[in-house]
Amino acid sequence: MPPYGAANGGEGATIEFAVVVLGVQHIIICGHSHCGAMKGLLHPESLVEQQLRIAQGHPLAFRQEDIQYRGHALECRINAEDPARGFRPCPGLIERFSAPNNARCRVDTHLYGGYRVPSHYDSLIAKVITHGKDRSTAIGQMDVILRTMQIEGIATTVPLHLALLADPAFRDGKVHTQFVENDFVPAYRS
Q: 18-27, 51-60, 98-107, 136-145: which range is least confident on average?
């Protein structure tokens, strides 16, 4: 399927699907970073560049058939929540923060040492995206990145992600849309 704008005269866009089409978004949706990684677009600048080209009246620099999927990508959304306590929100002071950000991964965050996570907003504090030649490589890279990441001062979902990455069913790709909620989290809590 061509990008919405390419088929309809102008804007580059993404289309979100659940059970039905949720809508056409005329923006870069940061939640689709893992999709871009599989298409060789690990950083959104390349997508933004294309949107700017289209806005100036230029055609896309590539065709849909030029985009080839390669490898496997994962995205972990790190929240200021405590999985061991029913995902209770964990606002508070970030005493120390460090995260790798290199060619094997991308970390999108606003955190820094001294930042105070507020209690009245979304608990998402970071997104970590890895890309590898296959699922096993991407999982291994994510495991290393999450073990290297340091977020001190509040509880986060990093331990949950690490346990999920180690789960045999997850590693083998034997999951379904309710796997985390129905199969993994109950076993994780026990």
A: 18-27
Residues sharing a CB contact under 8 Å with residue 75, sequence separation 6 or more, in sequence order? 31, 33, 34, 127, 128, 129
Q: Write out the H or E segment, with its range, that includes residue 89.
A: strand 88-89
Is residue 124 within 8 Å of 77, Cβ to Cβ?
yes
- Picking from 47, 66, 85, the residue at the C-terminal end of a domain is 66
Averaged pLDDT for residues 168-186:
90
Q: What are φ and ψ of residue 103, in 5° steps?
A: -65, -20
Residue 50 has pLDDT above 80, yes or no: no
pLDDT category of residue 40 using cuts at 50, 70 and 90: low
Task: Return the structure tokens found at 138.
Answer: 């991407």
Cα angle, residue 30 at apex, residues 26 and 33 outer, rounded to 5°: 115
Backbone dihedral region for residue 153 (phi beyond 0: left; psi -120 to 50: alpha; all else: beta): left
Could you tell me what percent of the chain has a pLDDT over 70?
76
pTM assigned to the model: 0.71
Are residues 130 and 172 located together in one domain of the fold? yes
Which of 66, 96, 118 is the endpoint of a domain? 66
Which CATH number do you get for residue 177? 3.30.470.20
